[in-house]
Amino acid sequence: MGLTVSVLTSGTPHGATQVTAAPRARLATTYLPMYVGNYETGLRQFQSTPWNDLPYAPTLVRTPTFDGGYAGRYTIPAGGHRCESVPNLRSFHNGDDLWFQFSTRLAGNFPLSTSRWQVLTQWKNSGDGSPPLELVVAGGMWRIDGGWGYPGGPRMDWRLLGRARLNVWETWTLHVKFSSNPWAGAVSVRRNGVAVVPGWRPKAGTLYPGQTSYMKIGYYRDPLINQTGTVYHDRLKVGTTPWSVR
After folding, report:
1. 156, 143 in Cβ contact below 8 A?
2. In this predicted structure, what is the pLDDT of residue 224?
3. Strands (E), the chain
4. Which 3 state secondary structure label does DSSP give 90?
5. Contact 171, 103 (CB under 8 A)
6. Mean pLDDT computed over 51-58
7. I need a surface site. Which of 45, 95, 176, 234 has the fewest CB within 10 A?
8. β-pairing, 97-106 with 59-61?
């Protein structure tokens, strides 16, 4: 790591080590997440947003889980539209440099073969329209994309992340540099610990000009999909370093 921790041995009983405040704070920033949403306390780590429950709200399940005793289940029936949670997490601004890790499982009833859009996670802009960054499944493939809702006209851009699978936990780790400047905004993605997208710079940036973004996790899809689908999420962590979200 190369982290230097200052210690004081004089003036302490029997030469005991005393860690000073500055290194302690630096250590916490490096290794501790700024947010954890693991469903172990129900949905308390998420905001109450009933407008995201169209028509059903997320529920807790004891199985399947990725970590701990509970996971979140997000189900949309045929013709339904949205079942999402908003973490109790601050908005994202120009210059933020953050890491995200969460685990997602597509249930056996998930409509994998449809080409219609299905969104599993959004870094949603504060205005209307599609976000600058989202994790989707389309045509049986995982994809990271964004920019369709860019003010003044679409600047859609995407990267493929590999084939989607049913009844398998997938752990996603994203490093996002938030900026409305396409030359500064960047995204790196790992799937189950393997780098699949290194340093992608979306055409629309990772924020829209004059807007902030916030996170949404769950299931959001085209209401023309005519079958029930279920998605599970577990162990969401957000931090300022890769170590803080492990």
Report:
1. no
2. 97
3. 7-8, 18-19, 35-37, 53-54, 59-61, 71-76, 82-85, 97-106, 118-125, 133-138, 141-146, 157-163, 169-177, 186-191, 194-200, 213-221, 229-239
4. coil
5. yes
6. 92
7. 95
8. unpaired
CA distance 40 to 49: 19
Tell me, what DSSP letter sits at residue 245? G
- What SS3 state is found at 71? strand
CB-based burial, 85-117: b 16+ in 10 Å, e otherwise:
bbbebeebebebebbbbbbbbbbeebbbebeeb
Query: Nearest-5° angle of CA 204, CA 209, CA 215?
Result: 75
Contact 200, 187 (CB under 8 A): yes
Instruction: Decide: 161 and 197 in contact? Cβ < 8 Å.
Output: yes
Supply 219's token pair. 């299931």
Domains of the chain: 1-31 (no CATH), 34-245 (2.60.120.200)
pLDDT tier, 182 (very low <50, low <70, confident <90, very high otherwise): very high
- CB proximity list for 104: less than 8 A, separation 6 or greater: 120, 121, 169, 170, 172, 231, 232, 233
Can you name the residues that pair with 55 across neighbouring β-strands?
none
Distance of CA 33 to the CA centre of its chain: 13
Neighbouring residues of 50: CB distance < 8 A, sequence distance ≥ 6: 57
